[in-house]
Write a structure and sequence with these properties.
By secondary structure, the protein is of the alpha/beta class. Helix content is about 30%, strand content about 25%. The strands form three sheets. Strands 8-9-10-7-11-12-13-14 form an eight-stranded mixed sheet. It has a six-stranded parallel sheet with strand order 3-2-1-4-5-6, with helices on both faces. A two-stranded antiparallel ribbon has the order 15-16.
């Protein structure tokens, strides 16, 4: 039996009901409209009491539509509100560290959108700030709380596949035709769509099987306007099991399949599509449909609330999210170079953006390569 965490000792402010967590949201944008915002009202022992957006009229409109008592156009004012017990940071990744450090300084718990930050270094600063104040930090990898993935974990924990022998995941989309905004702006996102979407798949594997290690990878930009990568290939291991994964955000066809294989069978699932999960063993293939709830973050938000009140343990913390960021950094270092500093300020220095020039003496018709004397590809 797991030991429950002790209830968090909230700062000494007026709390009419100590069994309820009162939330404030920084950045009440699109993700909070359906996925998360309503969940703070609908979760048990949870209340949404304040929202903030830099555009005050938009913050006021959100508060009116969602029945939130107060709104702000200043994050500092929301954090300082004595009736806000905990803060949900729902802004793009470039401001996660800044706001998280302010929330930690106020002695309040935070629930931060994923990815946790633009790099592992930023994650470490955030985690240390909350650790030093003995305040919990959670990250919105909400698939850890969804029933469909809980079902997969039950199969795995029951040993249904026997001994796990391999993991492979492949994702493809035609995002090169439509992607825009902060998700493909390296300054805002910390990379391209890989950090925003790939993080879900990697964190889910961490949840289902355990921490990923020995991660290494490559990234390129083949067909997308802008500086960010659009294709990533990754190798890793999980408790000695070899794994491979790839993401292609410039594909003419879509694909989203993860396959976990063992000595007695195989599980296949989609990270993003609500397709049936499949279990194949010697007796045949079983498909199970597990629909998502209307507000997909609600199960995890319930776990966050229960964790703070000492009623349950939340599976998505700053510690687990930091592991996912470290794996993504390992995959992207060859493209961006040193990701420990503000690499987004110097795109001309990124190794992955170096111009490929063909060598006249060994040109084979492809302007992006030359052939070495042995016939292997040699990028220059």
């Amino acid at each position: 039996m797991k030991t429950l965490p002790p209830p968090f000792a909230f700062p000494a402010t007026r709390r009419p009901d100590p069994t309820v967590v009162r939330w404030g949201i920084i950045g009440c944008g699109d993700v909070t409209e359906v996925k998360s915002g309503p969940a703070f009202r609908l979760a048990e022992r949870s209340r949404l009491v304040a929202v903030m957006r830099r555009n005050g009229s938009m913050a006021a409109d959100y508060a009116r539509r969602h029945g939130v008592p107060r709104w702000y156009d200043s994050a500092e004012q929301l954090i300082a509100d004595p009736e806000v017990d905990a803060v949900y940071i729902a802004t793009p990744p470039d401001s996660h560290q800044t706001y998280a450090l302010q929330v930690a300084a106020a002695g309040k718990p935070a629930y931060v959108e994923k990815p946790m930050a633009r790099s592992t270094v930023e994650c470490d600063r955030m985690a240390e700030a909350f650790r030093s104040r003995e305040v919990p930090l959670y990250v919105a990898y909400y698939r850890r709380g969804l029933p469909r993935f809980q079902h997969i974990k039950e199969w795995l924990d029951a040993g249904t596949l026997g001994r796990i022998t391999s993991v492979d995941y492949h994702f493809a989309s035609s995002a090169h035709r439509t992607a825009s905004g902060w998700r493909t702006n390296v300054t805002s996102a910390g990379a391209g769509l890989f950090l925003d979407l790939g993080s879900h798949a990697l964190d889910l594997l961490d949840f289902l099987l355990g921490p990923l290690d020995r991660a290494r990878g490559q990234a390129v930009n083949r067909a997308t306007p802008g500086d960010a990568e659009d294709s990533v290939a990754l190798q890793f291991s999980i408790k000695g099991v070899l794994g491979v994964a790839s993401w292609n955000f410039a594909s003419g066809v879509a694909r989203d399949v993860c396959r976990i294989t063992g000595t007695e069978g195989c599980i296949e699932y989609s990270t993003f599509d609500n397709a049936p999960i499949q279990l194949t063993t010697a007796t045949g293939t079983k498909s199970v449909e597990v629909p998502h709830p209307p507000h997909v973050q609600q199960p995890l938000i319930q776990q966050v609330v229960d964790d703070m009140l000492g009623r349950a343990c939340c599976p998505s913390t700053g510690e687990s999210a930091r592991r996912t960021s470290a794996v993504m950094d390992a995959a992207l270092t060859a493209y961006y170079g040193d990701r420990t500093g503000p690499f987004w300020e110097t795109p001309a220095a990124w190794p992955g953006r170096q111009t490929l020039q063909p060598s006249p003496e060994s040109y084979d018709g492809n302007p992006c390569k030359k052939l070495s004397p042995g016939g292997a590809l040699a990028f220059i």
